[in-house]
Amino acid sequence: MLAFLRPREFVTSIYDINLHHHYERGLRSILTDLDNTLVEWNSPVATPKLMAWLEDAKTIGFQVCIISNNEETRVMEFAKLVGIPAVYKAGKPRKRAYRKTMAMLSTTPRETMMVGDQIFTDVLGGNRLGLYTILVKPIHQQEFIGTKVTRKLERLVLRQMPEPTINKVNEKSER
Ligand SMILES: [Mg+2]
Predict the structure, then answer these.
(1) How close is the Cα of 163 to the center of ligand 1, in Å?
(2) How far is the CA of 60 from the centre of ligand 1 (A)?
(3) What CATH number does residue 67 fall under?
(4) How far does the centroid of ligand 1 lie from the alpha carbon of residue 64, in Å?
(5) Is residue 172 part of a domain?
């Protein structure tokens, strides 16, 4: 069970993902969570930094699609704002929405990365289907009340994991 909870990478934010590297080794699609992964929870504002990151990803050759458990209005308005497709009320970690999203993009699990800030939804669902899972640190503390309980469990899982791999250097320099 623990193996399914373990992300393949643990980084500070989406900006620390080495997109060129993953493209070179065959990944072609990015499924990404929305709240606390791309922007703060329920924030309708797309930062210039996020817009630049999405442009970079597309330029490299990635397709990007939001996969979120949040409501239709929240998810689709944001998706429209940043100009990428999205799947709302995804029911992560259930497999169904991941399959639907991959079908939409015509991508296979082997070519797909799943990026998100929660182990028990984003990472677990992605791992169950064999996607390349990347856990990011949540952008902001404020979030849906139900999430607070799972955060405690996440800390237990993370305690058994090595430190974030890619960002070891950055993390140290922050201290
Ligand atoms: Mg999230």
Answers:
(1) 20
(2) 25
(3) 3.40.50.1000
(4) 16
(5) no
What residues make up the domain containing 108? 2-166
List, as ranges, residues with CB under 5 A of the ion ligand 1.
33, 35-36, 117
Q: Residue 171 falls within a domain, yes or no?
A: no
φ, ψ of residue 64 in degrees (nearest 5)? -125, 135
Confidence of residue 143 (pLDDT cuts 50, 70, 90): low
What's the total number of domains in the chain?
1
Domain contains 9: yes
Task: Please give the model's pTM, rounded to 2 decimal places.
Answer: 0.84
H or E segment to which residue 87 belongs: strand 86-87
Q: Report helix, strand and coil shares of the chain as percent, to nearest 5.
A: 45, 15, 40
> What distance in angstroms lies between residue 84's CA and the mean position of ligand 1's atoms?
17
The answer, yes or no, to whether residue 169 has pLDDT greater than 90, is: no
Structure token pair of residue 55: 């442009």
The string of pLDDT tens digits covering residues 106-133 is: 999 999 999 999 999 999 999 999 999 9
